[in-house]
Amino acid sequence: MPSATTLNIASIIAHHARLTPEKAAVTVAEKTVSYGELDSLSGKVAAALIKNGIRQNDKVALLCPNLIYFPIIYFGILKAGAVVVPLCVLFKSSEIEFQLKDSEAKILFAFEGTDEFPMGKEAFKAFQNVASCQQFIALTKSPGAKSPFDGEKTFAEFISGAEPVNSPFPTSPDDTAAILYTSGTTGKPKGAELSHLNLWTNVVTAYSTHLPVLDFTDGQQKTALITLPLFHTTGQNVQMNSQLYAGNRIVLLPRFDPAAVLETMVKERVNFWVGVPTMYWELLRYIESTGFDTSKLRETVKVFASGGAPMPVEVLRRVEDVFGIRVLEGYGLSETSPLVCFNHFEKPSKPGTVGQPISGVEVMCVDENDNPVSAGQQGEIVVRGPNVMKGYYKSEEATAEVMKGGWFHTGDIGFIDDEGYLTIVDRKKDMILRGGYNVYPRELEELIMTHPAVALCAVIGVPDERLGEEIKAFLVLKPNAELTAEEFIDWCRQRMAANKYPRYVEFRNQLPIGNTGKISKLKLKQELKKSE
Fold first, then answer.
1. What confidence score (pLDDT) does residue 436 get?
2. Of the candidates 489, 500, 485, which has an alpha carbon nearest to the alpha carbon of residue 443?
3. How far apart, in Å, are the Cα atoms of 43 and each of 49, 109, 314?
4. Backbone phi, psi, residue 105, to 5°
5. 68, 240, 251, 314: least surrounded by Cβ within 10 Å?
6. CA 380 to CA 367: how far, in whole Å?
7. Which residues of 334-344 are buried (b: 16+ CB within 10 A; e: fewer)?
8. Cα(358)–Cα(373) distance, rounded to whole angstroms?
9. Pairing outcome for strands 272-275 and 303-306
10. Of 403 and 497, which is predicted with more confidence?
């Protein structure tokens, strides 16, 4: 007998379209789409997908920056009962090809791109090499333009004449909603299968964390600015889905630019923003160099949140001093939908920690034998709860490896204090093994960031014949600051244990940034290998 228990993430749009269809949902480049329009347009996408043979659990890929196309197509795919496979807009054709083949996507929606980022060309090249992907739909810069790819439909042509699907397909809570590929820093990316229930519970909890600072009596719709890419789990679920679930308005910026972010916050009277630590660092640098007046932000901004990577305590303090706004750190992964821990409003923040577990989620630190460690002791962070993925798509072995003992093993090292606050020490895979001693780069980076001349840093292990690995620091200095390698190493020697301080240092104008806005240590290591 079919179950009457259903859940579809697309219902969050349908719900507000019934209640307040005229209310603003998404703003991009000063153009706003209402909840009613978003529901209708996504309904057209669902109808067109079904007409073109897409059925429940079929995979549909979406390669698109933060443009209005993204939420329309995203919710349209879900309305049809299909699975969204978001792709990174910076990918080259080989990377896109791998994920299209691995996910078995039947249709690919791809933005044509720009001269600087010709993502459409890369996507089309990949599409031509994947027999299982049957259609390529071009998302043109101008809605009425012809397809830049001969013989392929544009988005406008694809949905032309489609009568909107009224109600989302009745998927079950455990049906897959999205497949999000991990970064693949140690091998090929793996597709984390996230169910409608996984996403839904994280959406509701992310929204609930904001309740203590929301005033529901002022009659004002709340606004969130999204600069993190929507193909990434934080921008997609913690921001887009959670804010639309709340009936708020989201303002999308296609790419992060400090001037545009600050000006948009003022102009659009933004209440919420989430950034990664490098974005906060860029904002601080811009304000210091231009003297931008942050006083107007304080009239509307209620919440600054940070995730994706641990925020150096020094940067955190500078942000709170400059903006006068409390920064709340969170922690999560693609495999956990993503939120695991958050600095809750009801509890004081502890700089350097990512707060406590969110509602319904359990977190523990374990030793190499999966035994729990005592408060304050370091161990691998493991998680269980309704947010944990179903598994890695078509990869039972990899799934079994991370799900040992009924807990998801994150690969992160941390410790929990006696009040339940989690501190991230480092990625297990980033740990440096120097002469038999474990050295965690995050610990060193926190201290290095207190140096008066240092604006940004990254620490990695480099091969060493005698010790196995040696420690190297990459530094970006503050404007007009002067520092020699000898001075820096001596400064570290006086403040760090003999087995920890960097023996090598390299000064850079900037550090490589990965697809999600975080410093890419993988790229640093690759650059070093090429130079050898």
1. 66
2. 500
3. 10, 16, 47
4. -65, 135
5. 314
6. 6
7. bbbbbbbbbbb
8. 21
9. parallel
10. 403
- Mean pLDDT for 128-153 is 94
Residue 384 bridge partners (DSSP):
362
Three-state DSSP state, 330? strand
Choice among 32-36, 312-316, 340-344, 481-485 with the minimum mean pLDDT: 312-316
Dihedral sign from CA coordinates of 157, 161, 164, 168: negative
pLDDT tier at 523, thresholds 50, 70, 90 = confident
Report how far apart the first and last C-alpha atoms of the chain are (Å, whole number).
64
All residues at 6 or more sequence positions from 15 whose CB lies less than 8 Å from its CB, including other chains: none
Q: Is the pLDDT of residue 179 over 70?
A: yes
In angstroms, the CA 85 to CA 191 distance is 9
Cβ(141)–Cβ(68) below 8 Å: no
CA–CA dist 168, 8 (Å, integer) = 7
Long-range pairs for 124-128: beta carbons < 8 A, 24 or more residues apart: 124/149, 124/152, 125/93, 126/93, 126/94, 126/96, 126/97, 126/100, 127/96, 127/100
* Residue 17 DSSP class: H
Which tens digits make up the pLDDT trace of 78-122? 999 999 999 988 888 888 999 999 999 999 999 999 988 899 999
∠ CA 248-249-251, nearest 5°, is 145
Residues forming a β-bridge with 423: 415
Peptide bond into 338 cis (omega under 30): yes
Cα–Cα distances in angstroms (integers) from residue 511 to residues 317, 487, 518, in the given order: 22, 21, 10
Dist. CA 326–CA 324, nearest whole Å: 7
The count of residues in the chain is 532
Using one digit for the tens of pLDDT, what is the confidence trace for 237-248?
Answer: 999 999 999 999
DSSP code string of 346-398: TS---TT---EEPTT-EEEEE-TTSPBPPTT--EEEEEESTTS-SEETT-HHH
| CB-CB contact of 360 with 205 (8 Å) | yes
Q: Beta-carbon neighbour count of residue 315 at 10 Å?
A: 20
Cα distance between residue 252 and residue 398, in whole Å: 35
Given a contact cutoff of 8 angstroms between Cβ atoms, the answer to whether 470 and 506 are in contact is: no
Q: Which residues pair with 71 in a beta bridge?
A: none
> Can you read off the two tokens belonging to residue 483?
């520092």
- Residue 438: which of 424, 428, 449 has the closest Cα? 428
The strand pairing partners of 27, in sequence order, are: 32, 251
Considering only CA atoms, give the Rg of the chain.
23
- How far is residue 409's CA from residue 405's CA, in Å, rounded to a whole number? 10
CA-CA-CA-CA dihedral for 387, 390, 393, 399, to nearest 10: 100
Q: Which pLDDT value is given to residue 532?
A: 67
Q: Which residue has the higher pLDDT, 36 or 183?
A: 36
Say yes or no to pLDDT of 185 above 80: no
∠ CA 405-408-410, rounded to 5°: 130
Beta bridge partners of 328: 305
Helical spans, DSSP H, in 52-175: 69-79, 93-103, 119-127, 155-159
